[in-house]
Design goal:
Layout (H helix, E strand, L loop, with lengths): L5 H11 L3 H22 L7 H10 L8 E2 L2 E2 L7 H11 L4 H8 L8 H6 L14 H10 L2 E2 L5 E2 L2 H9 L3 H14 L4 H8 L2 E2 L1
Helix pairs in contact: 1-2, 2-3, 2-7, 3-5, 3-7, 4-5, 8-9
């Protein structure tokens, strides 16, 4: 499988970003997620680091479709993964890359949750199935594109995800147990962002 180069990934971001501000927000977030993932996979020899890097750098490309008048339409944010999958498929990228977009939201979304919560998503499961997908999903939880952007500590994300059910907190804890915790302090200093 041929993975897109770093240059090709940046070109895709620039192609779909509706503004320089949107590009910076989403692309920098993706770079940070890649740096977090890199910290976490160093001890796991079964993970393809190049696939993880490409997945991290492309997982949120669908967010560009949510920009309206310079702001992200939060009411449709749950759809950004599906939008990203569509964009990447339209670019002819392989399924293994497209899935990073559609299968990274939260700690996974079940078909039952989609039905119960009446989410505007296809009625199917959106779970990470490979170690690479799981790592990208997990690394993504430690950074937010909010205004201003910030890093999320494990306890902060646990508090957030708890509102969706105890099973969601348990899934996140399983990821912590599996991959360990990243060092967010160095990244927060480098990017001039705070940790909550």
């Amino acid at each position: 499988m041929k993975l897109p180069t770093l240059e090709e990934i940046e070109v895709l971001h620039r192609k779909y970003a509706p503004s320089d501000e949107a590009f910076k927000s989403v692309y920098i977030h993706c770079q940070i997620v890649a740096e977090i993932a890199k910290q976490l996979f160093s001890s796991n020899k079964n993970i393809d680091p190049d696939l993880v890097r490409a997945g991290c750098l492309l997982h949120d490309i669908g967010v560009y479709r949510l920009y309206k008048d310079g702001y992200i339409d939060e009411s449709r944010y749950i759809c950004h993964g599906i939008f990203g999958d569509e964009l990447l498929r339209g670019e002819g990228l392989p399924e293994s890359i497209c899935r990073f977009a559609s299968h990274h939201t939260g700690v996974g979304i079940s078909k039952e949750q989609i039905t119960e919560r009446q989410l505007p998503l296809p009625h199917q499961d959106f779970f990470a199935e490979t170690e690479e997908e799981l790592l990208v999903m997990y690394a993504d939880k430690f950074h937010s594109k909010s205004t201003p952007p910030r890093f999320n500590s494990a306890s902060s994300y646990k508090s957030y995800v708890a509102r969706f059910g105890e099973d969601q907190t348990e899934k996140f804890q399983n990821m912590i147990d599996h991959f360990g915790l990243p060092n967010l302090e160095q990244l927060a200093v480098r990017y001039g962002q705070f940790i909550v």
